[in-house]
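> @MW can you paste both from yesterday?
MW: sure, first one:
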Amino acid sequence: MDAEQARRVDSVLRRFGIPGVVAPADPEQLTGPWRVFDKADPQTRKDITADALAALAAALPASAPGPDPKGASGPTRGFILPPKSDD
């Protein structure tokens, strides 16, 4: 992720209470890729990007499209044809 994406990821992680420090992968290269780490110290930190994103995905409601439960799709339009009378 780039710096702008990292800023948004950091905000969302904080909002959901997911631990992690979003920082550049190379502390000397601020324009390079950014990752999520367990602590800020570049000498002892561990990359936890995958774990943080998995925790975030688990915290978000499922949004995968699928069949709607009966009645959840709302009103629909259609025609009602009366039965033929035998008159």
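MW: second:
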Amino acid sequence: MGEWTTVYEDEIEERLVTLKVYRSDQAADEDGDDGPAIRVTTTSAEGSSSVVEDDQDGDTLLVEREATARLITLEPYSLEDLEGELMEVGFSPKAAAQIANKVPA
């Protein structure tokens, strides 16, 4: 049996990032993939937004909404896919490379 082990946890680009790898006592998968299983949990990059609303008197109001961060979990098929998936959820190429470099060999 194996278990998920946290190998990195920090804030990058003002978003919490937790990187876990699955460590197993068993040999490589039967499909020949000997890379580690990877799981990255982060928060969404959504910021606060301004919304225009009309009140009961017909006046227009500008309303600031609080940022609502959603948890995002990525489980890329391979280490090579990790950077691309991180960029898809809003990380810069530099930040994606920084996170991917934390995966142990």
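> thanks! The mean pLDDT is 81.
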